[in-house]
Predict the 3D structure of the following.
Amino acid sequence: MSASPAASQNDGQASGQPAKLGNEQVKFRFCGDCSNMLAPKEDRINNKLMYCCRMCQYSEEADSACIFRNNIYNVIGETAGVTQDVGSDPTLPRSNKRCPKCHEVEAVFFQSQQRSAETGMKLFYVCCSCGHIFQ
């Protein structure tokens, strides 16, 4: 998010192209008179969204109906929650797989933490000496 008074212009419309709704960014808007942040307000008479200053009478019409955007990313790493000290866990199975980092031959292994249809069964190894995670 940009926090400058110039940010009240929509990037897509400034270049002559309409803004894309899917990738639209919500920007802070500032008063042209007193530089305070503008708040969204509904103009019920004209049925329009306006940005109004709470300190003076400045207002401007919104170029987009979007005032807030909450992006939720639901990507979980395959090794989420794995720490280097997992090698000392006695309940995990052990293997004689060689670590590519320190060349030790003892490692614990576990299945991928990512659960989706397109993800096959992946085994991850954690070196018991250096804690390096590898496949």
